[in-house]
UniProtKB/TrEMBL annotation, chain A:
This is His-Xaa-Ser system protein HxsD. The lineage of its organism: Bacteria, Pseudomonadati, Pseudomonadota, Gammaproteobacteria, Pseudomonadales. It comes from Pseudomonas rhodesiae.
From TrEMBL, chain B:
This is His-Xaa-Ser system radical SAM maturase HxsB. It comes from the Bacteria. Residues 91-327 form the Radical SAM core domain. The keyword Lyase does not apply. Pfam families: Radical_SAM. InterPro entries: Aldolase_TIM, Elp3/MiaA/NifB-like_rSAM, rSAM, rSAM_paired_HxsB, rSAM_sf, Sulphatase_maturase_rSAM. Keywords: Iron, Iron-sulfur, Metal-binding, S-adenosyl-L-methionine. One of its GO terms (molecular function) is oxidoreductase activity. The lineage of its organism: Bacteria, Pseudomonadati, Pseudomonadota, Gammaproteobacteria, Pseudomonadales. Signal peptide: none annotated. Its cofactor is [4Fe-4S] cluster. Belongs to the radical SAM superfamily. Anaerobic sulfatase-maturating enzyme family.
């Protein structure tokens, strides 16, 4: 038996990439069709073939948590990207691997 | 009048800045956060949003820890950036040294017929499965092209003692060349010890050759896993071990175990056998999906969940041993803990990123083929030549090391750009493992949520962190494992 569930995410609060990443993380249990109605992302979740209901419901819950986590990761990554590049620049300068 | 300002004078007035870090849920109540160099800290779930929103009060007890582990910094502080850069350089320093481990498959012949054999061994009489001197010479040319100041040559099979003349040839030739080269040259023979004799031991002693062997557990389990004519594999191992230790030194012989379905209910028995035979550690290994392990369906005989139960039971027992004063190490955990608790990378090929294939270890096969790793040649014995980098008689060092087969695998599996891995808090402890993922999923990256490698390692990382967080004594034991001399 197949199971399905629909979730709505406000576009002012979530990025599409964030939902895609959360969907990818759930790929072993369910698939997600992501569409937009202009204000909200609509995520249609469907269980993989042979998945039982309990596993699917747990995965739906995980998907919601993952969406929040990935949104927070996105915020952190955007804010720290310049300093990350600086640290990597410091780490890989003067390696001596390329003759000057 | 006091010469010193009051404490309040030094109190930070401005909010902190975030440094790059990753996080993942450890359980329902806690997150693990890891910095760019892999140092970790565990925080309660509600704390994460506060840290990232910078609403955590500067008086919070967490602030000094977050600063000292470079998750945050105060405005204009330069030291955290320099420290992170230094730690990252230290962690990746092995890359600049390039290939260390060079595996010579001197024969595919073997006196054992293990159903889980990952290299698809041949019977003892088939001489066409032996390496020739011409191949050995060319392979040594290749070995000394590596810029690494430390070179390890490991002889594998089949059973390398069935072609001991080739082992002798390579060792003598390599040592002769090394007079000029001046490398730190080490030799290892991977052997079941079943064919060990005084002649072999004399040669090993003379040239400081270390023996790496296999022990699957108590006699009944070992002999069931590792059949040979006479059903005496364990007896021969034990006799060989005594002789080798007496001749070469107690610590010059190590052993590896492989977990079969028969091993799963016997974690304690296996560890007890290692203790009885005087080993100071054990490597709790899964079956690799190669060779006869696939053909005989041994690989499918248990799943990741069941192996994790086995691992956790074994680890719990080992921790109890350590608590009672018996120093004994679980070696896979020790490798992971070294990555978690120090800035060193132990250089274990499975847990390297970029993958260790080719650039940490390389294999010269008995037929002249060069492979990116031991697993790659195992795969080739099953007819899959994806990671065959060339032929030692036909191709140059540059052609092999710069081959598309190698570079594509390294680049495409790089975890910092792989889906899911790039955001994973445990990425600094994990590895790319393109060969494993190709073997199982026909894709060097694979879908990580479906990967048993990901599932197994993620569970191990979380388990080790939870153990350290729950018990200070375990943390001290693990610190000892991570900082072994």
């Amino acid at each position: 038996m197949d199971f399905s569930h629909k979730l709505l995410f406000d576009e002012r609060l979530y990025d599409a990439q964030v939902l895609q990443k959360a969907a990818y993380r759930s790929i072993n249990v369910l698939t997600v069709d992501i569409t937009s109605d202009g204000k909200q992302f609509v995520c249609a979740l469907s269980s993989n073939i042979g998945m039982d209901e309990q596993s699917f419901l747990s995965a739906v819950q995980e998907f919601k948590k993952d969406a929040l986590d990935y949104q927070l990761r996105h915020r952190l990554a955007v804010e720290t990207q310049p300093i990350k590049n600086l640290i990597l620049g410091l780490a890989f300068s003067k390696t001596g691997l390329i003759s000057e | 009048m006091s010469k010193f300002q009051k404490l309040e004078f030094y109190a930070q007035q401005r909010p902190y800045e975030l440094l790059p870090f990753k996080f993942d849920r450890l359980n329902d109540n806690e997150y693990v956060i890891t910095n760019m160099a892999g140092e970790f800290h565990v925080i309660p779930v509600p704390m994460l949003e506060s840290i990232i929103s910078k609403t955590l009060p500067l008086t919070s007890e967490l602030i000094p820890t977050l600063r000292s582990k470079q998750f945050i910094r105060f405005t204009n502080e330069q030291a955290p950036l320099q420290l992170l850069a230094l730690k990252i350089r230290t962690r990746l320093s092995r890359l600049a040294e390039f290939t260390n481990l060079h595996i010579f498959v001197v024969t595919l012949r073997c006196d054992h017929s293990c159903p889980y054999c990952q290299v698809s061994r041949q019977s003892e009489s088939k001489g066409e499965f032996d390496m020739t001197t011409e191949m050995a010479d060319k392979s040594l040319d290749f070995v000394f092209m590596s810029p690494n100041p430390a070179i390890k040559i490991e002889f594998q099979g089949g059973e390398p003692l069935l072609n001991f003349e080739m082992v002798r040839y390579v060792v003598l030739k390599a040592k002769k060349r090394n007079v000029k080269e001046g490398r730190d040259l080490q030799f290892v023979i991977a052997t079941t010890l079943s064919l060990l004799n005084d002649d072999v031991l004399d040669f090993c002693k003379q040239h400081n050759i270390v023996l790496s062997s296999s022990l699957d557990g108590p006699m009944d389990l070992h002999n069931a896993n590792r059949p040979r004519p006479g059903r005496d594999s364990h007896q021969r191992f034990e006799e060989g071990l005594k002789k080798a230790r007496a001749a070469l030194g107690y610590d010059q012989v190590s052993a590896l175990m492989t977990t079969t379905d028969k091993s799963l209910p016997r974690a304690r028995d296996i560890i007890d056998e290692y203790l009885r035979l005087g080993f100071d550690g054990i490597f709790l290994r899964t079956l690799s999906p190669y060779g006869f392990a696939i053909k005989t369906k041994k690989f499918m005989s248990y799943d990741t969940e069941r192996w994790l139960e086995f691992y956790k039971e074994g680890l719990e027992y080992i921790i109890d041993l350590n608590k009672s004063g018996i120093r004994f190490v679980e070696q896979y955990s020790s490798l992971v803990l070294t990555k978690m608790l120090t800035s060193e990378d132990p250089g274990f090929v499975d847990l390297m990123n970029p993958a260790g294939a080719g650039i940490a270890a390389i294999v010269f096969n008995y037929d002249g083929s060069v492979y990116a790793s031991d697993e790659s040649r195992m795969l080739a014995e099953m007819g899959d030549q994806t990671f065959r980098l060339g032929n030692i008689l036909e191709h140059s060092y540059e052609e092999i090391i710069l081959s598309d087969q190698l570079l594509d695998a390294l680049e495409n599996s790089f975890t910092l750009s792989a889906p899911m891995c790039s955001d994973c808090a445990f990425e600094p402890y994990c590895g790319a493992e393109p060969v494993y993922h190709h073997a199982i999923y026909k894709d060097v990256v694979a879908r990580k949520p479906e990967s048993s490698f990901c599932k197994r390692n993620m569970a191990i990382f979380k388990h080790l962190i939870e153990l350290m967080e729950s018990d200070e004594q375990i943390k001290r034991i693990f610190m000892g494992w991570a900082n072994r001399c």
